[in-house]
Automatic annotation (TrEMBL), chain A:
InterPro entries: Tscrpt_reg_PadR_N, WH-like_DNA-bd_sf, WH_DNA-bd_sf. Pfam families: PadR. This is PadR family transcriptional regulator. Residues 7-77 form the Transcription regulator PadR N-terminal domain. Coiled coil: none annotated.
From TrEMBL, chain B:
Pfam families: ABC_tran (PF00005). This is Macrolide ABC transporter ATP-binding protein. It comes from Streptomyces katrae. Keywords: ATP-binding, Nucleotide-binding, Transport. GO terms for molecular function: ATP binding; ATP hydrolysis activity; transmembrane transporter activity. InterPro entries: AAA+_ATPase, ABC_transporter-like_ATP-bd, ABC_transpr_LolD-like, MacB-like_ATP-bd, P-loop_NTPase. SUPFAM superfamilies: P-loop containing nucleoside triphosphate hydrolases.
Length: 174, 228
């Protein structure tokens, strides 16, 4: 999963401090793996350097200064591009896809379009593997079948998620 | 979808059963020799779409054009004649006549078209060889396995050399291995005969034998080639 794109997507709703970003990330995506503070700040400094975010304000207090980050137009374009590009089909892709679906819902983009794009990409690879299987020997067939069963499982998840988008949208926008 | 050069084209199809909308502005097209999978959740309207395309069910609105002829404007008798001569059908199960032998079942569409018994059964046996079921020709459907029975049904669907084969969940009652064999032989035989195949399935591994995929949701169709 791309932490940078995820944090950018979370910033689209409005400027946030690093601490708020970490909390939003953990609430939505970090159930079994919360994000380390160090990773938030190193990612934000990279995004700053690349012009995808800017510092919206600095609060001085008793402790260290707290920077508030805002997404730039280039950042919004970058998120949109990431969400619209299908992921390379491979096993255990679900966490990246789940993140993309949630971000699409949070940022008002088409989550069903994203799922359809991914579905088409999966089926494209399944066609290639089926072709290879038809022409190959038994070993090829068994190797291709293993990949096909995994891709099929992904597709079933995509279909089920499609059917539950309204429910998920209500949950993530609470 | 690019209907140019298409053999079968449907636009604006609507069909309701009572207050339930089965199709709501659905569209479809298929080229000669192309295999198109029609997918979608249960109750999404995919079987209704197949029935409208095959002229079995008349849509409430929209048109179905086969080879330049408007199916919806034809009378029942004309439509039936067109179905018999141009279309072949494979269903999930229950399509073979139990009293006839397998070779008689495959020859049946030719016999109904007036072909003599000997010639019809010789042609039927040729198709059964392609589908690797020539050895069950003398058996009745109740005496063969599910996979063999389905391959006999595919041979029967292809025996009249139809230009379009409609297959509604053709592997739905089979295990994975037999399902794969049916799909492999069905698509190979159809491609060799330049027949288009409209394949309704809910299994993505079966859909992977197609060239293109249409997804039907809530009675609306979407061409997935356009999704990328």
């Amino acid at each position: 999963m791309s932490i940078g794109h995820t944090l950018l997507g979370l910033l689209e709703a409005g400027p946030r401090h690093g601490y708020d970003l970490k909390r939003a990330f953990d609430e939505n995506f970090g159930h079994d793996r919360p994000l380390a503070y160090g990773q938030v700040y190193s990612t934000m400094s990279r995004l700053l350097k690349n012009g995808l975010v800017e510092v919206d304000g600095i609060e001085s207090g008793g402790g260290p200064d707290r920077k508030r980050y805002a997404i730039t137009d280039a950042g919004i374009t970058d998120v949109a591009h990431w969400l619209s590009e299908p992921e390379k089909p491979e096993p255990y892709l679900h966490s990246t896809l789940y993140t993309k679906v949630v971000l699409a819902l949070l940022t008002g983009r088409s989550a069903s379009g994203l799922l359809d794009t991914q579905r088409a990409e999966h089926l494209r690879l399944m066609r290639i593997l089926t072709q290879r299987k038809r022409k190959g020997d038994l070993a090829d067939q068994l190797v291709c079948d293993h990949a096909l069963f995994h891709l099929e499982a992904d597709l079933r998840w995509l279909e089920l998620t499609s059917a539950r988008l309204d429910q998920l949208a209500r949950e993530v926008r609470r | 979808m690019t209907p140019a050069g298409s053999l079968l084209v449907a636009t604006g199809l609507c069909k309701a059963y009572g207050t339930t909308k089965a199709l709501d502005d659905a569209a479809f097209s298929i080229h000669p020799g192309e295999v198109v999978a029609v997918m979608g959740p249960s109750g999404s309207g995919k079987s209704t779409l197949l029935h409208c395309l095959a002229g079995i069910v008349a849509p409430d609105a929209g048109t179905v054009t086969y080879d330049g002829r408007d199916l919806t404007a034809l009378g029942d008798a004309e439509r039936s004649a067109l179905r018999r001569s141009q279309f072949g059908f494979v269903f999930q199960f229950g399509q073979l006549v139990p009293e006839l032998t397998c070779v008689e079942n495959v020859a049946l569409p030719l016999r109904l078209a007036g072909v003599r018994r000997k010639e019809a059964e010789a042609t039927a046996l040729g198709w059964m060889e392609r589908l690797q079921v020539e050895d069950v020709g003398a058996k009745r459907p109740g005496e063969v396995s599910g996979g063999q029975g389905q391959r006999v049904a595919v041979a029967r669907a292809l025996v009249t050399r139809p230009r379009v084969v409609f297959a509604d969940e053709p592997t739905g009652a089979l295990d994975s291995l037999n399902g794969e064999l049916v799909m492999q032989l069905l698509t190979e035989a159809a491609r060799a005969a330049s027949a288009a195949v409209v394949l309704v399935t809910h299994e993505t591994r079966v859909a992977a034998y197609s060239d293109r995929e249409i997804v039907v949701r809530d009675g609306r169709s979407r061409d997935m080639e356009r999704a990328i």
